Amino acid sequence: MANTPVTVNYEPAGEDWKVVVTAGEKERTAEASGLVAARDRAEEIVEELVPQADRRTVVHLLEGNAFDFTAAYLQARHGELPAGWWEEPAADRREAATESTEPDTEKADEADEAVLADEAVQEGEPVGGRG
């Protein structure tokens, strides 16, 4: 079992969270109020199932998705989660998160054209079809 990661899957259950911890063929479930409390409970169960801390890797998942768990846990730990946020498809959440970080290619193209035009003027070439 040293090479098999322990998986902890979290699922919203109304106001609470259902936690399923799987370590090899062993599985335990629990419920907790709030995601932070659910993670704390999961750690207790992991310790019971695999007491050798140096021999375990734990993967936390929110409805099967590690990215969603990480985002939700950090949000719950450091701020408020809007009610029902997990009901939006994960792909939509990831797309919305990356939209603001994508480069504006139109502005980049305009800047490239300006540099090329500037270089052409410096070399004495006609720019923009005038010549």
UniProtKB/TrEMBL annotation:
Acidic residues bias spans: 101-122
Domain of life: Bacteria
Region feature Disordered, mapped onto this chain: 84-131
Name of this protein: Uncharacterized protein
Organism listed in the record: Longimycelium tulufanense
